[in-house]
Structure formats: structure tokens, C-alpha cells
Amino acid sequence: MNIAYIVTAVLVSALLVFTARNKLIRQKDVVEALVRVGVPERMFPVLAALQLLGAAGLLIGIFFRPLGVVAAAGVVLFFLGAVIAHLRVNDAKNAPIPAVFTVASAASLVLGLATV
Predict the structure, then answer these.
(1) Residue 59 · residue 9 · CB < 8 Å
(2) How many CB atoms lie within 10 A of CB 101?
(3) What band does 23 get if pLDDT is binned at 50, 70 and 90?
(4) Is the Cβ–Cβ distance between 116 and 108 less than 8 Å?
(5) 3-state secondary structure of 50
(6) What is the spatial distance between Cα 87 and Cα 1, in angstroms, rounded to a whole number?
(7) pTM metric for this prediction
(8) CA-CA distance, 68 to 108, in Å (whole number)?
(9) Greatest C-alpha distance within the chain
């Protein structure tokens, strides 16, 4: 179980860093999707910071599991909020992306809880 947690924590962290980067550089399709769901551009750095903190928490959680569990729970809530935001504005085309991220984050959470 410990190896499974490490693998998922590293993969989800990489995903978080990549998506945070896309927000920070204002990648065109990311900006369009976020604006479509009502996120003001001034909030992009805040969302990116939350994602980077989640990534750091998951990676530190490899060595200090309680932090990894808390970080994984936060990441699950972050992406669940993204799914809800897309569905709220009938943007079903983009909702599957954060839904997959939610599932991956939930796997990290479950594996972290199993190995505390």
C-alpha cells in the first residue's frame, strides 16, 4: 500500500503542478474554461497557489502521512468544486477533466488513509 500511495501522490502532484502552471501562464483554453465558469482572472494565481500547496502536501505526505491525507482531502475538495462549477454553468464538455482529477485525488486520499 505504501508504494501505491507514493506512486499516486507523485502522479497527482505532477498533475497539480502542470495545471497550476497552465493557470499562471494563462494558457488560452484554461483561461476560456475558467472564465466560462465565472472565475475572475485575478483568482488564477490563488487557484494555482492552492494546487501547488496541495502538490507539496502530497509529496511531504510520503514522509509524514497525516499531512498527505489532509492535502489529499483538500485536493479532492478542490477538484470536486471544479466539477460542480462546470456543471453549474452547463459546461459538461469540460467537466470530465476535473472529474478524472477528483478520482485520482480520491485514490491518493484512500491510500493515504490506509497507510497512516
Answers:
(1) yes
(2) 22
(3) very high
(4) no
(5) helix
(6) 34
(7) 0.92
(8) 8
(9) 41
In tens, the pLDDT along 89-100 reads 988 787 788 999
> In sequence order, which residues have a C-beta less than 8 Å from that of residue 63 and are 6 or more positions away?
none
pLDDT tens readout for residues 73-112:
999 999 999 999 999 998 878 778 899 999 999 999 999 9
Residue pair 114/9 in contact by the 8 Å Cβ criterion? no
Q: Which residue reads 470530465 in cell numbers?
A: 96
Burial of 1 (0-12, 13-18, 19+ CB in 10 A): exposed
User: Any residues with CB less than 8 A from the CB of 15 and at least 6 apart, and which?
Assistant: 101, 104
